[in-house]
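User: Can you predict the 3D structure of Type II secretion system protein GspG C-terminal domain-containing protein? Sequence below.
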Amino acid sequence: MIKLSKFQKGFTLIELLVVVAIIGLLSSVVLASLNSARDKAKYSRAKMDIDQLKKAMLIYKIDKGELPPLGDNCSACNNPPNSSWTLTIDALVGGGYMGGRIDKDPWGNYYGYDDNDCNSNSGVSYVFTAGADKISWTADDYNVVITNSCAD
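Assistant: Sure. Here are the predicted structure tokens for Type II secretion system protein GspG C-terminal domain-containing protein:
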């Protein structure tokens, strides 16, 4: 027969609850830092994509004398940018200026492209991502100027 002593060894309920609370706190800190690292990785990917797009567009301009077509409307005028961007990508990939398609940013939105190459007062053309909030012209956006004027 097993004898039970008056004082049993083990953890009390309060001790177990304290351990569970500490584990929960530590896991929330780890998850927060993982989300931060994930966001940084998405921005790095978007920057690399946009830099590659800029290079392809400049080579296209050297060959054709103008930037790639945009379509009927400004893809930068929509929040988030719309699919008129695919016409630009088709011209870059079809012409051999890019090895593959870059249709959307890491957040699942189309990249924005505003083609003002020699057809407006400013002449400034750029490619951008609306960022995580999916709204153009906010603090989380990233954009690169492709050309500053008709002379570029």
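The domain at 19-147 is CATH 3.30.700.10 (Glycoprotein, Type 4 Pilin). The two ends are 94 Å apart (CA to CA).
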